[in-house]
Write a structure and sequence with these properties.
Strand 2 and strand 3 form a beta hairpin. The protein is flat, with a radius of gyration of 25 Å. The longest helix has about 40 residues. An 8-stranded antiparallel sheet has the order 4-3-2-1-5-6-7-8, with helices on one face. It is of the alpha+beta class. The chain is built from 4 helices and 8 strands.
Amino acid sequence: MKRTRYVSAAASVVLIVGGPVAAAAVSSDAARTVTAAPALRADVTAQGAAAAALKHYPGVIESLDKDGSVWHVDVISKDGKGHAELDVSASGAVTEQNRDTDENAAENKALVSAKVTAEEAMKAALAAHPGQVWSVQWEDGDDGKAPYWEVEVKSSDGKTWNAHVDHATGKVTQSGADSDSDGDDNGN
């Protein structure tokens, strides 16, 4: 019991005397934490979102687009039978929204066997139009056209470029700037 009183008394003295110093140390640490937090929340790029999604669900990216600070990524399994809808946060955390295992592999054959991946299409589009990738979408090539990647790039001057990237060569075959700054071709 005597020992308890001494420990309690010693703790009280430390708190009374060291209180302002301890409070300053805590405030200093808190300030460092607050200023460091924004640096940790650097938004993930399209390339980073693609890498995070493929690490979570290996396969081939079918589409990737940014909605606010979240990337929506659709991945098809390498055998073409699986499909996952993933969200990648600004910090790179992956959340699985949906997973199917009964996809028609024949419908995904062109995508799975394409020589150029979504990641390579993004690189090609950025080489043609520097900026940030905002979306990438596999286009099956309806109307008798060959399949291609459509990549949306936002440049530092606010213009949005839509590039068609050849599925076999990676060559930017068509590109153009949108007239509006939100990247919507329909003016909406």
